[in-house]
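Issue 218. Parser rejects a valid record. Input:
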Amino acid sequence: MAIEIGAATELDALSAEPIASGRPWAWIRRSRWVTAGLVILGAFVVVAIFGSTMAPYDPSAISGQVLAPPSAAHLLGTTQTGQDVLSQLLVGTQDTLLIGFVTGAIATVLSVVVGVSAGYFAGYGGELLSLLSNIFLVIPGLPLLIVLTSYVPHLSWWMMTLVLSLVSWAWGARVLRAQTLAFRQQDFVQAAKAAGESNWRIILFEILPNEIAIVATSFVFTVVFAISFYVALMFLGIGNINQWSWGTMLYYAQNNEAITSSGAWWWWAPPGLAVALVILALVMLNFGIDEFINPRLRAAGLTRKELRAASKQQGITPVLADRPNAAVIPAEPDGFTWVRRTR
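Output the parser choked on:
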């Protein structure tokens, strides 16, 4: 028995609840990427909200236990001045995630407003908006922050957020502009114009809903960029190093040679691992967004792994092609025959 993956497929019959059945909550329950990403990210959000109350010690309190390894009293050890690493990690989570998500929100709003407007409105207005996004696209963020630091030695978190937003919105705006240019010529937009709909109503209710995937992906990657960039800046000492964050922990660990000579891995490893886990969670969410939005994955309804499992149960031969002229690949060790489209 052969199954062809196309617009109408029998694969949905093999799954009581396809990955992308048009119901977001059903998709969230089925997607492993989204489930894992939400669990990891949710744990860090809880720590960001309640980190100050969860911290066993004052993160700035100095004690006599210098560079003590992890123990029952200090689960993640202490620093060169006897400060508790776990308390610093818990308290620093809020500042790191706050800057990342606020930057992502501001940059996404800017990219939507400028990008969609530049793509929809023809003439000088659209060209000027496109020129504006091109200018911000080439502005280097790190030199700009270094220059600002020379005038304002201790940048506040909102100033850091504003600068990161200004240097990260242009890429999303360029992508949205290109997509809007394509949608502007579609029949449903022309029909809305013929019906007398206003331009802003067409943008908000006709074009923008079809660009939700791009907007969501732009937001996720902007948060990834903001968190990574902020941690790197604080690691270099650019910003308010008196405010606890994961980057501040790495900054003090580097300055006190915990990374190179003292061997105090418990000082720099926890914040580094926390950054990696947050970025991993965001990347998983982006994979889940693509899994839900991508037309081919939505038509398939099953992942390759689920297709193999269903094949073994039903005794079928999967055929990954939606055209009749497909080149047959030799049978794999499991006995199934897979085909590949030739055009």
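Fixed in the parser; the record now loads. Residues 1-22, 320-343 have pLDDT under 50 and may be disordered.
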